[in-house]
Amino acid sequence: MLIGIVGKPSSGKSTFFRAASLAEAEIAERPFTTIKPNRGVGYIKTRCPCREFNLECNPQNSFCVGGWRFAPIEIMDVAGLVPEAHRGRGLGNRFLDDLRQAHVFIHVVDASGRTDAEGNPTKGHDPLGDVEFLKIEMDMWLMSLIKKHWQEIAKRAEHGRGDFVDALSKQLSGLGIRTEHVKDAMLAKKPRDYNDIDLREFTRRLRETAKPMLIAANKMDLSEAEDNIKLINGIPCCAEAELALREAAEKGLISYVPGESRFDVLKKEELNERQKAALHFIEKLLDKWGNTGVQHCLNRACELLDCVIVFPVEDENKLTDKDGNVLPDAIIMPAGSTALDLAYKVHEEIGARFIRAIDCRTKKVIGKDQVLRDRDIIKVVSK
Prior knowledge:
Layout: E1 2-6, H1 13-21, E2 38-47, H2 49-52, E3 63-65, E4 68-77, H3 92-98, E5 104-110, H4 127-147, H5 150-158, H6 164-171, H7 179-185, H8 196-210, E6 213-218, H9 225-232, E7 235-236, H10 239-250, E8 254-255, E9 264-265, H11 273-289, H12 294-304, E10 308-313, E11 331-333, H13 339-346, H14 348-352, E12 354-359, E13 364-366, E14 377-382
Helix pairs in contact: 1-10, 4-8, 6-7, 7-8
C-alpha cells in the first residue's frame, strides 16, 4: 500500500513527509523544493495485542510504545502541483505521472492562506481554491488517459467483442484502478453516447472511488488558519510541531507517542532556551487541538482504503515466530484480503504451499478464502 503526499508548492508537504517518516527530504520556503519524489516509511497506529494477552512483544517490522503498535506503510512526497499542471505547467507532467502508484492521497493544504496558488508568499489566499484546483488537475490528467481508448473500446463492446468495463479496467490497471472502481463510476447511459461532460463526471467518480483523498489542513498554529480549517473541512494539522516532537523523542529528550495529546520532558537540563520555548509552544498547541494531526491523517488514509492490520505468527499458543519473537510483525492488508493473501504476503513459497490457517484467538482452523479482520492473529500452515 502506498500513500501519496500531494499539494501545491510550499504547503508543507515535505515537512509532513519528514514528520511522518523521519526520512530525509529537503525543506525550504520556496516553490518546487521537491523535484524527485521522496519515498519513506510511515506508520499506522493500532492497539497491540500484547496487552490483551499480557505479553511483552518483540516487534521486528514495526514498533510498540505503551501498548500501541505502529505498522509500516510506504509514503511518497511528490513535486508540488500548480494550476494547469495537466498542460505541463510547473512540474505538472512529472508530478501527475508519479501519482500513478499511490492508492490514497493526503492533500496537504496551507490553511493559513499565506501562500498563493503557486506557493509564493502572500496574505489572505483562499485555501478552498487550492483544494478544488488539485482535484480538477487530477481529473483532467486522468480524463486525458481515459479518452485515448474510450470510443475504440466502446465500439468493440457494442459489436460483442468483449465487455466494456473489463476492457477499460485492463487499460487503466497500471494506475491501480480495478474493475469494481470502473463499474461503480459508470453513468446510466451507453459508453458510445458519452460526451465530454459525461466523461468528466465519470472521471470524477472514478478518482473518488479508486484514488480517495483526505485534506490535511496544515499550519494550524498560524492565526489565520482556524476559520479556514472549518471552511475546507480538513484535519487540523501542524507538521512542524510533529517533526519537532519526533526528532526530540528520537534524541531521547522527551517521551512522545505519535498522535497523543501530551509528551514528557526527560532531559530538561539538556534543552537550550530555544528548545524549551518551542516545546512550551507545542504544549499549548496540543492543549488546544488535541494532537498535531499527522498521525491522525495517516490512520484516516488507511481507513479510507478499509485496510486491516494482521499479526502473523508461527506458534499459535505462544504467539511467536520461529526465533521466539512475540507478535513479531504487523502487516497492513487491503480490504477483503484472505488467509491465502496473507500467506503470500509473508513469503511467496508459503503462499504456494498453503494448507490452512489458524485463528490464534479462537484456535479454529480457517480456509484460504477466509476474509481477514482487523487485528487478527493468524498462523499459516504450509507444506
